[in-house]
């Protein structure tokens, strides 16, 4: 049986040289984070490892001590200063490659968060099943925050209570996330994306405001399902509308995590038609390719007129990562009847800069190759790039996707792109 700890005992288990895994999204224990912040001296020489999500996970563990470090798969806003200071090792990987990596390295401690044990002595990973179930067998020591506020969804993986090494049993707030306000441009993007979604489709959609603007117009559809890395609050309204499929061979929703409000956590925690799975399932190309009519909807920072997407850099600075973007686009392309969509507002928020550009700036990462995208959708329209030549792709991206005020500039610049020069 595990040893029970008081929260303030946690720092006594840390020492220099240890590698410590901390989950992402609402799997990140806010209690453990608080204790570490209040006992930062214990973090000296510790390396924290996590798949922290931009805009969701707000703590920079590398900053807890001058000798602490972090290994991350995103450069989140919270990590930016430590990354610039050389204290964060950023690993650019497809989401599907992260679990094999985590299983290949030495993890001394995993600081996981679970629900209290059920009558069979099993603790649910709750609303955060993306990575913890896959790494607990590889971490040398499991320290669990057993949190009564963590839901126990009927379709979530579990771990036996007696497999835990240490437990801290305390009720504590779960991490919550607000999608933020929509605007007219985002609503137009969402409406254009929604126009491609048909009855019976399975939707994969990334995190952020576009999730709400795409799902809101779908309440008149029938037999929709969702499959992806995460679900947020807009799922509740779509499910309540009757637009989603119930029963059948697959659950209504298959996801890795839920991240949002307490209302969302209560909803997914009690619905038997929502299944939580590790990323090895949600992002697996064979699984994705086997889902008919999979519509993958993700975003990027900018696209060039060849159709290459940058989803991780701004002005040469790493600000995010590709994440599961390519996994899902490739899965949708393999799906029978699938659609691979990159959706974005065509300008920066101030309207002064086009996000459809002649070429990506030198040194900018190509997050998505031009071969992986089928549709580029902005508030201005839908650019269908399937089976198009390079000049045809450029024409569609300029005349359909780009903002009208930048089209003359893009037309003038197209002949400066070597692949588009007329001979």
How would you explain this protein's 3D organization?
The protein is α/β, with parallel strands linked by helices. The chain has two domains: 10-169, Glutaconate Coenzyme A-transferase, CATH 3.40.1080; 184-420, Glutaconate Coenzyme A-transferase. It has 13 helices and 23 strands. The strands form five sheets. The chain has an eight-stranded parallel sheet. It has an eight-stranded mixed sheet with strand order 14-13-12-11-15-20-22-23. Strand 18 (313-314) and strand 19 (317-318) form a beta hairpin. The protein is globular, with a radius of gyration of 22 Å.
Number of helices: 13
Low-confidence stretches: none
Helix content: 10-25%
Largest sheet: 8 strands, parallel
CATH superfamily of the largest domain: Acetyl-CoA hydrolase/transferase C-terminal domain
| Outline | globular
Look at the structure and give the CATH class of the largest domain.
Alpha Beta
Distance between the termini: 75 Å
The total count of strands amounts to 23
CATH topology of the largest domain: Glutaconate Coenzyme A-transferase
Beta strand %: 15-25%
Instruction: Provide the domain count.
Output: 2
Rg calc: 22 Å
Q: Mean pLDDT, nearest integer?
A: 96
The helix-and-strand class reads alpha/beta
In CATH, the architecture of the largest domain is: 3-Layer(aba) Sandwich
Strand order of the largest sheet: 1-10-8-6-2-3-4-5
